[in-house]
Design goal:
heterodimer, B: three-stranded antiparallel sheet, 8 strands
Chain lengths: ~400, ~120
């Protein structure tokens, strides 16, 4: 039988095909039973193994489970920063287990991608309990080595040969944004302000000092127009979630399900895109995840987005469809992105202020969304949160992993 | 009919067109049958002229440089450094290709560079 006749090819940008694939694979509901995280900080005395282990143990204890059937480790840089790759067995053996355990690398989107692999493993029926743990160690590495390691996730032949860094690529997007939409750098202050404000009351955040307008405007330029307070801080950290077949969560007080999960990709380089200010992977994965969840944008109570740079927060809001193109900064100011606003974002500080341990950030987003949906977010609580969206991005929007989580009972 | 650049000497350097590798997006003045960067053979001829689509000044401890997306006259975007432009740096500034594999400052640079248009002959 001709295989190609049965399996329609995926054409680029064809989000419909991705939705069909998801529907075939997911045969049962998936709940998030346990969460765990370490502080996001310079853990110079902690190894990758100990960070991952701390978060994993906390997640298992939270779930009330002793073991899992499979482990997915989200990580981007370990071989560059610590000399250690092959993190699957590193993490599983630290947990005293010999189950299936592999690394998932989608650059800065690794943490979200690992959760998605765990979701697919449980949702497909392949296993009942899966652990996703995002872990990264970035401290103690020479700055130029770290910048080079991070830049390896950009297009080498088109971008990195010109000494492009991620700050530079985002700066090029921001400069164009200012030009096309007649905006000012000052307009982006709201993203830094809200993220830093939310991090003040998050004991696990990397930067807890807030950010004043004066600090924002006078901080040194990294790559014009991106200043220090437009960028997220590097850090070490690990976050973990335990996903189970929803039936295992039946006896719990609260049940929170992953009701939508999607991943989409775009060209690796900016120059190949018809419109660099439109993140089509963000658009595709958001719509696929919402469609799977059978929810609308208006149902989303909070959005943990990928604010590695303030410009990314704006582009995510627009490409996800929460606000028309060119209006993200106006939306943020007028409708509100703070905890009581129309669409709270980065409720624990986001990548911007909680910190961006790159391969772990996407898992932190899920952990924080669960805290919100459980009503356990303390001073950071978004009132009456029942649906949360998380979005983890690799590269300059080249990979986007979007999840929709919902409180079921 | 634009001529692909094959002569590397200053005086006879044909200014009208370049090789644009459809595989890796690299601009090249080289007359090789394949792209020096990726080995691709699918060259398109593009003009050397473009405008700055967007840019940034990358500030590093060892000095700053201008990185930009250039929109070539035919439409495609290509990333490169911009050299020899100071206060007039802006989106829309007309620029022209000045070389691959050097930025006029350091020999280790392997990317492509653009400079102000109409600055006279540029020696590769």
């Amino acid at each position: 039988m001709d295989r190609s006749a049965r399996i329609p090819p995926l054409s680029p940008g064809d989000a419909t095909s991705r939705v069909i694939l998801i529907r075939i694979v997911i045969v049962r509901s998936v709940s998030v039973l346990g969460i765990g995280q370490t502080r996001v900080a310079n853990h110079e005395d902690c190894s990758l193994r100990s960070l991952a282990n701390e978060a994993s143990r906390a997640a298992l204890a939270d779930a009330g489970l002793r073991g899992v059937n499979a482990i997915f480790v989200g990580n981007m840089l370990s071989d560059h920063t610590t000399g250690q790759s092959h993190l699957g067995p590193l993490v599983s053996s630290a947990a005293g287990s010999c189950v299936e355990s592999i690394t998932v690398n989608a650059a800065c989107g690794s943490g979200g991608a690992a959760v998605r692999q765990a979701y697919l493993a449980v949702g497909s029926g392949a296993c009942d309990v899966a652990l996703a743990v995002g872990v990264e160690k970035m401290s103690g590495v020479a700055k130029e080595d770290l910048v080079r390691a991070l830049a390896s996730a950009a297009d080498y032949q088109r971008e990195v040969v010109n000494d492009a860094t991620f700050a530079a690529l985002n700066a090029i997007l921001m400069q164009r944004y200012l030009y096309e939409y007649n905006a000012m750098r000052l307009d982006f202050f709201v993203f830094a302000q809200v993220a830093h404000q939310n991090a003040v009351s998050n004991p696990n955040a990397r930067l807890r000092g807030g950010c004043s307008l004066d600090e924002y405007l006078t901080s040194r330029m990294v790559a014009d127009p991106i200043g220090l307070y437009d960028a997220s801080p590097i850090a070490d950290g690990a976050a973990a979630v335990v996903l189970t077949d929803a039936r295992l969560a039946a006896g719990k007080d609260q049940r929170i399900d992953i009701v939508g999960s999607a991943c989409a990709t775009d060209t690796l380089s900016l120059q190949e895109r018809a419109d660099p200010l439109w993140l089509s992977a963000v658009e595709g994965s958001t719509h696929a995840a919402l469609e799977q969840a059978r929810l609308y944008h208006s149902d989303v109570d909070l959005f943990e987005l990928h604010d590695a740079f303030t410009i990314m927060a704006a582009l995510c809001l627009e490409s996800s469809g929460f606000t028309p193109r060119g209006t993200a900064t106006t939306f943020a100011r007028e409708h509100g992105i703070h905890r009581d606003g129309a669409l709270p974002i980065s409720t624990f500080g986001g990548l911007k202020a909680r910190g961006h341990p790159v391969g772990a950030s996407g898992t932190y987003q899920i952990v924080e969304a669960i805290l919100q949906l459980r009503g356990e977010a303390g001073p950071n609580q978004v009132p009456d949160a029942s649906v949360a969206m998380t979005q983890s991005i690799g590269g300059s929007g080249a990979t986007a992993v979007t999840h929709v989580l919902k409180r079921m009972a | 009919m634009p001529a692909t650049v094959i002569e590397r000497r200053c005086r006879t350097y044909a200014k009208t067109s370049l090789n644009y590798c459809a595989e890796c997006g690299r601009l090249s003045e080289e007359s090789l049958p394949g792209c020096a960067e990726c080995g691709g053979e699918n060259f398109q001829r593009v003009s050397q002229a473009g405008t700055i689509y967007s840019y940034t000044i990358v500030r590093q401890s060892e000095g700053s440089f201008v990185l930009a997306l250039i929109q070539l006259a035919e439409g495609p975007l290509v990333m490169g450094r911009v050299v020899g432009v100071d206060r007039e740096l802006r989106i829309g500034l007309p620029v022209q290709f000045v070389g691959a594999g050097h930025d006029g400052l350091e020999s280790a640079f392997r990317g492509v560079s653009f400079g102000p248009r109409g600055a006279g002959d540029v020696c590769l």
